[in-house]
Recover the amino acids of this structure.
């Protein structure tokens, strides 16, 4: 080991060495790792699983020997320029280990960065684009979707998340090779700009894309977007129907007990029950289609609902209770689901949406009517009647009070 004074001399002239040989020969220590590392079989193709194995490969691949040779050449060069004398040149030659230790540290730091930037799931890949096309990536997508289901996310939310992830990764696949975190962030920002300027999406959709992609990456211990700021979400008062319009919608669902077929009567009964439950109970469409007969307590006039955030119990009025009983008595399908199609299977969210739209058109109401607007109307009318906001929060199944407060804007207006 060299004396401290000599070690200090070596360290002081390190910058001169870099400027007069190492930098000229291999750009910088970190760029050297990238340039030479890619040429070593296995480093970026998944052969090695940790840094120590990579370090061994770098050593056997000649990186350290190359630096040693460069130090000799650099010391000769700065000696010839008169920057150092022969004694210092000898110190450099004898103290190469100190410099090489510094180089090795740079290599390790760079490879740690590569590990974080490229994959961070246990092995290296040549570039992120190729990884997106692999079976491994499909597996982690499936794993993420499964986690959403296990955490009781609604079918609509899962469908939306899946669509956002698919569209974003498809966009990435069409870009040039992505080798590190900076390039990934660059392409994510360009994707957001593409959605904003070309697809003309809303501010709230940009917020959703950022949140979903971040969550998906974090689920897989990839933290590329930690530095990305989530766009602000615009919370505007939701549309709603007046109480008169709700009655107008319900009155548009009619049938003739004497002349209509049993199938038509049962269908109309079911459809009126759906609109009634969506409005009078403030159900989400996902909650409605998953209701079972067992969820109805006819004696207690109660409806048990399993929501995306929690379970809750809603009181049924007498007319709604009788409507449920009449529908169940007349329908021929044997199913434990409360509302079903002609085959006895649960309805799809899309079917309910189209059905509501159909009756909205037939009612003559000049507003867009969806299942969720019926839920908005329910909450707004409760506010108008002076119901406490925390009770409304419980009835709607909101986990955060701030979500419920948005309805008060409509009631106040």
């Amino acid at each position: 080991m060299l004396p401290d004074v000599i070690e200090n001399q070596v360290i002081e002239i390190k910058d001169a060495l870099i400027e007069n040989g190492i930098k000229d020969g291999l750009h910088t220590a970190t760029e050297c790792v990238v340039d030479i590392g890619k040429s070593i079989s296995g480093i970026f193709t998944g052969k090695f699983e940790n840094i120590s194995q990579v370090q061994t490969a770098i050593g056997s691949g000649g990186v350290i020997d190359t630096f040693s040779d460069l130090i000799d050449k650099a010391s000769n060069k700065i000696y010839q320029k008169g920057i150092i004398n022969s004694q210092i040149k000898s110190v450099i030659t004898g103290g190469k280990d100190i410099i090489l230790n510094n180089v090795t540290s740079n290599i390790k730091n760079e490879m740690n960065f590569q590990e974080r930037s490229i994959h961070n799931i246990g092995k290296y890949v040549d570039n992120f684009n190729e990884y997106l096309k692999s079976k491994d990536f499909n597996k982690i997508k499936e794993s993420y979707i499964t986690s959403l289901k296990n955490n009781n996310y609604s079918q609509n939310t899962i469908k939306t998340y899946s669509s956002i992830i698919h569209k974003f990764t498809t966009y990435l696949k069409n870009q040039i090779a992505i080798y590190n975190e900076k390039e990934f962030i660059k392409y994510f920002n360009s994707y957001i700009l593409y959605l904003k300027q070309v697809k003309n999406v809303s501010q709230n959709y940009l917020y959703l894309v950022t949140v979903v992609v971040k969550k998906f990456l974090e689920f897989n211990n990839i933290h590329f977007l930690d530095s990305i700021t989530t766009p602000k979400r615009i919370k505007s008062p939701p549309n709603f129907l007046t109480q008169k319009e709700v009655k107008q919608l319900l009155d548009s669902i009619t049938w003739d007990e004497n002349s209509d077929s049993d199938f038509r009567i049962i269908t109309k009964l079911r459809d009126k029950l759906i609109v009634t439950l969506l409005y009078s109970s403030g159900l989400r469409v996902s909650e409605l289609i998953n209701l079972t007969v067992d969820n109805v307590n006819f004696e207690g006039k109660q409806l048990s609902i399993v929501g995306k955030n929690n379970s809750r119990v809603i009181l049924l009025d007498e007319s709604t209770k009788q409507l449920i009983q009449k529908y169940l008595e007349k329908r021929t399908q044997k199913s434990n689901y409360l509302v079903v199609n002609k085959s006895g299977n649960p309805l799809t969210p899309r079917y309910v949406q189209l059905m509501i739209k159909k009756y909205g058109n037939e009612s003559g109401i000049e507003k867009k009517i969806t299942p969720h607007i019926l839920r908005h109307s329910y909450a707004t009318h409760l506010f108008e009647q002076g119901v406490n906001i925390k009770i409304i929060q419980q009835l709607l199944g909101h986990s955060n009070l701030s979500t419920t407060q948005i309805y008060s804007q409509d009631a106040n207006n």
